[in-house]
Every structure is written in structure tokens, then in C-alpha cells.
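QA checklist item 7 of 12: single-chain prediction sanity check.
[x] sequence parsed
[x] length recorded as 179
[x] structure emitted
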Amino acid sequence: MARLILFNKPYGVICQFTPQAGYSSLADFIPIPQFYPAGRLDTDSEGLVLLTDDGKLQHKITDPKYKQPKTYWAQVEGAPTLSDLQPLREGIILKNYRTLPAKVRPILEPMQLWSRTPPIRFRKKIPTSWLELVLTEGKNRQVRHMTAAIGFPTLRLIRTAIGQYTLADLPPGQWCMIE
């Protein structure tokens, strides 16, 4: 029977079990052998990472043909308007590819948000805003590239859901197993 671990990856943790100098790894948090990440999350991003001991389930979670929606909260520099966000809803050209259309909407700062170490940079004269984005693809650093392309760089990025699986109330650095 396939088992799945939901892990709330803290900022600064690499999304692999092999140690790398200067970084914490998944092995520092999840002491169970034979589990592998189903996808990745950048070191400077936080939130939900799924791990499994079943190769077929791992494939179903990560293969783009299954189009698992991934939900993110992005704290961005500036205050985008609805028209600023429209290119993300239509698909935007980044480097050498066009993204699939994203669902994106402004949100209030999430109530259940935990503090981050180190905190994001703060500028007195530049406000920050929060966005919720739902993507069905997962290119490397895609959300960061998308928000930067429309002039609102991402300062903090938290993945809150992958398909039906969510962080719920799972604190950073904690995990739970479901079967």
C-alpha cells in the first residue's frame, strides 16, 4: 500500500535527502527510509512537499500530463492591480516558453502565516501584497519568474496545496503520514 508524507518545508531546506554543505536537507526532518520527494520546492521557498515510497504515485503526482494543481501564496513587492495580473491568467512568455494560464487573485496576508527566518527585506516606501496562484505546471522557479515578468518580484513564496493535499495546520518543519 502506497504511503504519502506531507511535509511543511521551511525556508533554507534543500528538497533532497543527500546533505549539501551549508543547508539542512529532508534527512534532517524525516527519519524514515525509502521515501522520495514527488517534485521539488526551491531552497528559498516554503511549504508543502509530498514524499512517497511508491514510484507509481510519485509519477502521478509529478508527471505534467496529470496536471495536478499546485496552489501558492506569493508575497510580492508592490501592489498589482487586477489588470496587472491578467497576463498571468492568459499565460505569459518566460525566456523560451509560454506558461499555461494560471488562476491568480489578490489575497489578504494569510492569518495562519508563520514567521520566516530570515525575514523578507522590508522597504518603508514600497508596499507588499499577497497573491494566491494556482498552476498546473511546475517549471523551475516559475512563480518567481512570472511575478517578476509583470513587475512585481516575489519576496516570499509558500506552496499550500498539491492536488487534494494541503498544508492545513502543519507547522514548518513538521510532517504527517497518510496511507
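[x] summary fact logged: The first helix runs from residue 55 to 62.
[ ] second reviewer sign-off
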